[in-house]
Amino acid sequence: MSNRTYFFLILILGSLTALGPFSIDMYLPGFPAIAKDLHTTAAKVSLSLSGFFIGISLGQLLYGPLLDRFGRKKPLFVGLCVYILASAGCAVATSIDQLILLRIVQAIGSCAATVASVAMVRDLFPVSDNAKVFSLLLLVVGVSPMIAPTVGGYVTAAFGWHAVFIILTVMGIAILAATVLWLPDSYKPDTSLSLKPRPILMNFFNVIREPQFYTYSLTGAIAFAGLFAYVSGSPLVFMEVFHTDEKVYGWIFAFLSIGFIGSSQLNTLFLRKYSSEQIVNIALICQVIIGFTFLAAALNGLLDLKITLVFLFLFLCCIGYTYPNAAALSLAPFTKNAGSASALMGAFQMGMGTLISVLISLFEEPSIIPMVSAMAGSAFLALVVLLFGRRFITRKVEVREGTDAGMMH
């Protein structure tokens, strides 16, 4: 493979990977403007974020079998077309109910890009290069939450929230054109694969029966729900409680992303000395302590903007260690059903994100308490699940040395 071909493939796959994070984060600074324009509240607008998480949960379970049955490109083309149409619909939505519904459809479309990009890495590159390629793609995923809300803040301030969805529509069109023109066919459709519900569900059932999977996948998903609580609650907290504008909120979001991204990358260094199990235990205990200290400070009125940023930064750092290692441990027992296990793990993660973002949206009064309560509660529940669930693991499969758990998130 020539350097030029390699570069273009990485560029296209990176763009596919970034589509979901940009769709989640870029419109967050526009929550107050959307609420005002659609005659609703910022808390109700956050339901459109919950809708997006629902769409991703459904999409991850949907596209895995479709990509194997029909090849990579056809489901990807359909998904991108759905994404483009839904994004354009979001730009002209006239009610919050329309926006929520269109965000669900938009997420189902974007999920095709996410799932296909992961599958095509294995198709297009030698196994020896896979770790390097995944590192590059995950760098894109990590940088996206830093860029997207910052750009979204400036775009919203200058042109209004509709412009954000117009930009996402144009991004979808550009990525679709690139996949049509330059992305090669990488996988021959498997016509023998059944798309009937029974064999698919049996596959999922066999995965769920594994104690190591349900213990660590649920632990990771519940711990990761603290990040969803932050993403869902932060527009209300920073722009309604602390009265920052869209531009400042974008920069705050970018700064806090450094905590999560940085710790997840440092995780690879810790794995040289400690096991994934040890890191999960320590990071989750720290996450609980930070979460409840944060909650106590919030309940006693001790929080200002700076102290809030410190607590959020530390909490997100813990998630950067907890989730990748929990993900690696949950997938470790599988060779045959790794795809189904990965899809289920993603569905658990997004399902928890949906639940916690819906709960936060129920509190319409500007307050930091719901967000912090959800963060502390998720950390505590994850620790309870870990302590209870690992009692049923009779044969633990460890993450092999050299497996980069930092790349599993």
3D structure, described in words:
By secondary structure, the chain is mainly alpha-helical. It folds into two domains: 8-183, Growth Hormone, Chain: A, CATH 1.20.1250; 203-409, Growth Hormone, Chain: A, CATH 1.20.1250.20. 79% of the residues lie in helices and 0% in strands. The protein has helices at 3-25, 31-37, 42-70, 73-91, 96-124, 127-159, 162-182, 197-208, 211-241, 246-270, 276-299, 305-331, 338-361, 369-389.
Quick rundown:
Its main location: membrane. By secondary structure, the protein is an all-alpha fold.
Which secondary structure elements does this structure contain, and how are they paired or packed?
Layout: H1 3-25, H2 31-37, H3 42-70, H4 73-91, H5 96-124, H6 127-159, H7 162-182, H8 197-208, H9 211-241, H10 246-270, H11 276-299, H12 305-331, H13 338-361, H14 369-389
Helix pairs in contact: 1-5, 1-6, 1-7, 2-3, 3-4, 3-5, 3-9, 3-13, 4-5, 4-7, 6-10, 9-12, 9-13, 9-14, 10-12, 11-12, 11-14
- Radius of gyration from the alpha-carbon trace, in angstroms: 20 Å
Shape: globular
Number of strands: 0
**Termini, distance in Å?**
28 Å
Mean pLDDT: 87
Low-pLDDT runs of 5+ residues are 401-409
In the CATH hierarchy, what is the architecture of the largest domain at level 2? Up-down Bundle
**CATH class descriptor name of the largest domain:** Mainly Alpha
State the share of residues found in helices, binned by percent: over 70%
Q: What is the CATH superfamily label of the largest domain?
A: MFS general substrate transporter like domains
* CATH topology group of the largest domain: Growth Hormone, Chain: A
Could you give a short account of the major beta sheet?
A: none
Relative strand content: under 5%
N to C succession of SSEs: HHHHHHHHHHHHHH
Total domain modules = 2
Structural category is mainly alpha
Number of helices: 14
